[in-house]
């Protein structure tokens, strides 16, 4: 049997991918050493070393939950096609521990792959609040690329989905969201959705006539939060009139 190479804990000295891999895959090694080895592999950015992580992440792996969760995070940073596929397979497998599936879902956001975006959108429909919330947070990694999907969510989603979409659109401040936000503000009845749409329009800050009219119409709304959000948004929008 070939003995594993000695592992150097100092990541700034003599990086040895094989020694790191041997330490990471050794289930009897102290956990902190295994995690340190994984950090060095990621920092080393060697495709061969990173590819070697794939079998360690598989469902039949004996690496343990904490190590597999750490590998999932590494896959999110790596963001290759094969890493994304591994994360998707993990999330889709309901036999996997929920804690691991949640980390995989979060890591999928970091990959910024189209398949990952599709997965996150579907996860927003999940009845489990942990999955729903993780997917909502992971969307932030896609930035402006998520705007078309977010607008679709705003227009067609249920109330909680519309709230998430409005919140993200407000943070992204993309002008393409203005017309859909105004439309929802003019026609919706749910207070939470109205309040977040008003807030989002204030964040975007575009002083268009239809924006001003939509916000003014909500100043006397019977729900205090909606009226206050509309008032605050009007102040922000009017600053950009001149």
* Largest β sheet strand count, sense and barrel closure: none
The name CATH uses for the topology of the largest domain is Leucine-rich Repeat Variant
Residue runs with pLDDT of under 50 for 5 or more positions: none
Mean pLDDT: 91
**CATH architecture level-2 label of the largest domain:** Alpha Horseshoe
* Number of DSSP E strands: 0
Can you tell me the number of structural domains? 2
CATH class of the largest domain: Mainly Alpha
Radius of gyration: 23 Å
End-to-end Cα distance, whole Å, is 77 Å
What is the helical fraction, as a range of percent? 55-70%
Can you tell me about this structure?
This protein has helices at 17-25, 31-44, 47-51, 53-57, 65-78, 81-92, 98-111, 114-123, 129-138, 147-156, 159-172, 178-187, 191-204, 209-216, 224-238. The chain is 68% helix and 0% strand. The chain folds into two domains: 1-123, Leucine-rich Repeat Variant; 145-242, Alpha Horseshoe (Leucine-rich Repeat Variant). It contains 15 helices and no strands.
Give a short summary of the structure.
With 242 residues, this protein is an all-alpha fold.
List the helices and strands and how they pair.
Blueprint: H1 17-25, H2 31-44, H3 47-51, H4 53-57, H5 65-78, H6 81-92, H7 98-111, H8 114-123, H9 129-138, H10 147-156, H11 159-172, H12 178-187, H13 191-204, H14 209-216, H15 224-238
């Amino acid at each position: 049997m070939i003995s594993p190479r000695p592992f150097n804990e100092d990541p700034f000295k003599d990086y040895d991918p094989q020694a790191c891999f041997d330490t990471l895959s050794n289930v009897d090694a102290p956990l902190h050493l295994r995690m340190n080895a994984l950090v060095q592999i990621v920092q080393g950015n060697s495709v061969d070393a990173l590819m070697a992580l794939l079998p360690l992440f598989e469902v039949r792996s004996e690496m343990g939950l904490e190590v597999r969760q750490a590998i999932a995070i590494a896959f999110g940073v790596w963001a290759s096609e094969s890493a994304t596929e591994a994360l998707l397979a993990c999330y889709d497998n309901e036999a996997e521990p929920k804690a691991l599936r949640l980390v995989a879902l979060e890591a999928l956001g970091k990959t910024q792959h189209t398949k990952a975006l599709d997965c996150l959108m579907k996860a927003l429909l999940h009845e489990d609040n942990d999955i729903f919330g993780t997917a909502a947070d992971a969307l932030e990694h896609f930035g402006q690329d998520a705007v078309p999907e977010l607008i679709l969510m705003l227009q067609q989603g249920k109330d909680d989905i519309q709230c998430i979409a409005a919140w993200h659109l407000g943070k992204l401040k993309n002008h393409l969201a203005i017309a859909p936000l105004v439309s929802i503000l003019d026609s919706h009845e749910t207070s939470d959705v109205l309040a977040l749409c008003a807030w989002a329009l204030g964040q975007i800050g575009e002083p268009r006539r239809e924006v001003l009219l939509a916000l003014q119409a909500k100043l006397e709304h019977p729900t205090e939060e909606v009226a206050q959000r509309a008032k605050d948004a009007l102040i922000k929008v009017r600053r950009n009139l001149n």
